[in-house]
Amino acid sequence: MSLGLTRHIGFVTGLGLNWNNYRFDGNNNIQKGIDGIIEELDPGLNLKKSKPATLFLNLPFMLELQVPVDHNRLYIAAGQIGAVKLGSHTKMVFENDHTVKAYGDFSLNMLRYGATACVGYGNIQLYGTYYVTPLFQTGKGPGG
Q1: Structural domain contains residue 136
Q2: Burial environment of residue 18 by CB neighbours within 10 A (0 to 12, 13 to 18, 19 or more)
Q3: Total domain count for the chain?
């Protein structure tokens, strides 16, 4: 959705999904301890793959500048972005291809916010986002 201020300047926003798929090094995973602090989980067997994954609903709000170039437009936008966590899980795949998934909140922050920017020309777009909120709740990430 966009709200034009002038012919070449306006605000843009929209909803998006952000799926983060991380990988652990080594033969380990994570689990939520009794006190809510995330700790290392030793699976006891060798793993082929070990990973956590998250799904967030994003809402960016940016100021955009469009510059006509030939028959296309060069556009630059920057602003804020907020997100709410929809779900998270961990997955372990053992050497015998047995798979174990665990669903939970893993003391991850439910909300996050940060800065986002993009630049594009025609149908090509490059964007980046920096979240200022930590991934885990304060004092509950790995290591306490």
Answers
A1: no
A2: middle
A3: 1
Q: Helix, strand, coil: what percent of the chain each, to 5?
A: 0, 65, 35
Q: For 49-101, what is each residue's pLDDT tens digit?
A: 889 999 999 999 999 999 988 888 899 999 999 999 999 998 988 888 888 89
Is 42 a domain residue?
A: yes
Query: Rounded to two decimals, what is the model's pTM?
Result: 0.82
Tell me which residue has tokens 């939970």. Answer: 104
Q: What are phi and psi of 111, to 5 degrees?
A: -120, 150
Domain that includes residue 110, residue range = 2-131
* Residue-by-residue DSSP string for 12-37: EE--EEEEEE---SSS-EEEE-TTS-
The answer to whether residue 137 is domain-embedded is no
Domain-located, residue 36: yes
